[in-house]
Design brief:
rod-shaped; about 40% helix; twelve-stranded mixed beta sheet; two-stranded antiparallel sheet; OB fold (Dihydrolipoamide Acetyltransferase, E2P)
C-alpha cells in the first residue's frame, strides 16, 4: 500500500468506477492506479479538541497549515475540479442522460470551504466513529497508540486520508473522505513514559544472591572436608587394628609351637 503526498499527486492516475446503487444513494468508487487512494497531509495545527470530536455531533477534525502554505489546499481544489469534470464526462453512461455542466457543478459540494482574505485555509475531514468509538488509529511521535481525547487544540498533527469515492445523494454529491490514521506531535515533556519491557536494574540483588551462594558453597566445602578427615582417621584406626590382630595371631601360633616342643622333650 502506497501513501501519497500531495506534491506527488498525479490527477491522471485517479480512476472512477461507474456508480452503483447502495440503498438510497449511488456510489462511484475511486482508486489511484488500481490501489486504494490514500493521501497524507502535511503537518497541520489541530483546531478542535479530541473530546469535542468524540462527544459532539460533528465528528470532523478541523486543521490548518503551520505556515501560510496553500499547496495542499490547491491540490484539493484541483481534485474537486476533476471530480466535477469526470462526472460531467460520464453522466450519460452513469445516469443515462445528459446533465449540463453548470447543474453538476452546483450539485457538487467541495471538500473544503473557500479561504477568506488574509486567512489560512481550514480543512475539515471526518473521523470515522461507530457508537462513539473511534475507528482510526492515532499515534504519537513515538509510534505509540493514544486516545483521541489526548488531542488538544493547537497540537501539531499529520493525517492519512482515504479518498474513497463519490457519493451521489438526491440533491447533491460529494467526495467521501475520512481520516484513516492520525499522528499527533505531543509536547516533548511527557508526564509519563511507560517502558515496554522489564527494565529494573537488579545488579545489587544479583550481587547479594551471589554472596549468599558463595557462603553456602564454603559451608559445603567445610562439611565435605570434615567428612574426608573422618574417613582418613577411620582408615588409619582400621589399619592399626588389623596389624594388632595379626600380631596376636602370630603370638598365638608361636605359643603353640613352643608347647609342642615341650611335649616332645617329656
Amino acid at each position: 500500500m502506497s501513501i501519497l503526498r500531495h506534491t506527488e499527486l498525479d490527477l491522471k492516475k485517479i480512476n472512477y468506477k461507474k456508480p452503483e446503487k447502495q440503498g438510497l444513494i449511488y456510489y462511484s468508487a475511486i482508486d489511484y492506479q488500481n490501489n486504494p487512494f490514500y493521501l497524507q497531509t502535511p503537518k497541520m495545527v489541530c483546531k478542535r479538541n479530541g473530546h469535542e470530536i468524540s462527544e459532539g455531533k460533528n465528528n470532523n477534525l478541523e486543521m490548518e497549515p503551520l505556515n501560510v502554505d496553500f499547496s495542499f489546499y490547491d491540490a484539493f481544489v484541483n481534485f474537486d475540479e476533476l471530480n466535477v469534470k469526470k462526472t460531467f464526462e460520464n453522466n450519460k453512461d452513469w445516469f443515462g442522460k445528459d446533465i449540463p455542466l453548470e447543474i453538476i457543478d452546483n450539485m457538487y459540494k467541495r471538500s473544503n470551504k473557500p479561504v477568506k482574505k488574509d486567512s489560512k485555509p481550514i480543512f475539515s475531514f471526518k473521523v470515522p466513529m461507530t457508537k462513539r468509538i473511534v475507528q482510526c488509529q492515532i499515534y504519537d511521535q513515538k509510534k505509540t497508540c493514544i486516545d483521541l481525547n489526548q488531542l488538544k487544540e493547537g497540537t501539531e498533527i499529520v493525517c492519512i486520508l482515504h479518498l474513497k469515492g463519490l457519493k451521489f445523494m438526491k440533491q447533491h454529491y460529494y467526495c467521501d473522505i475520512y481520516i484513516s490514521q492520525i499522528k499527533v506531535f505531543l509536547d516533548g515533556d511527557h508526564k509519563y513514559t511507560i517502558l515496554d519491557s522489564y527494565s529494573f536494574n537488579d545488579i545489587e540483588e544479583e550481587e547479594n544472591e551471589l554472596k549468599e551462594l558463595e557462603k553456602d558453597l564454603m559451608l559445603d566445602g567445610d562439611f565435605l572436608e570434615s567428612i574426608r578427615d573422618k574417613g582418613t582417621e577411620r582408615n588409619k584406626i582400621k589399619g592399626e587394628l588389623d596389624n594388632s590382630k595379626k600380631m596376636i595371631e602370630d603370638h598365638e601360633n608361636n605359643i603353640k609351637v613352643l608347647e609342642n616342643k615341650l611335649r616332645e622333650l617329656d
